[in-house]
Write the structure tokens for this entry.
Amino acid sequence: MDIAAILPLAIVMVAGPQIISAFFFATSPEWKKTSAVYVLGAAISIPLVVAIGYLLANKALGGESQEGTDLGIVALLLFAMFHKFRTREESEPPKWMGKLQTATTRFAFILGFLLLGFFPSDLVTALSVGGKLGNGEDPLWHAIPYILLTLLLLGLPALGVAVLGERAQRRLPTIRDWMNDNSWIVSEVVLAFFVVIVLTG
């Protein structure tokens, strides 16, 4: 499988509360520490879930056809699309978001681990990446560019503050609000694109 085919799914991974949380951390007083451990938490959970998907696909191929495994991956992706669509108009942010700008490093780490590893759409997306690699008998390390791109996108708000300083902190809330309103559209397009890749691959 072409590694580049799974890279767009990194956008799906960060779209929603994941990147919104990164924006909050980047505008907090302890932005360096909280942003770093937030990304670190994600850096642990994402490879873990991808590896699980990979192992499950390899095990399934022992008793099922590749087509059957592909249908399971498509089902996961369709669930992710449904979840993104269903939650697109939630106007009230989760209560935990009110804690982000005063969050401890422990809270930021746990949030990064849970949001990027076990948030429903991210869970099925990472499982799908691992499953597709395992289904195509690609080595697991082919997921590394996808993981690194996801982490880079997650760290962009903090990188912006590091490079641009106060100017970035003034603009981040506006960008955050726009992404909160529109990121689901991009996610739907990317997920649909990957469904086509799975069905035609």
Summary: The chain has a mean pLDDT of 80.
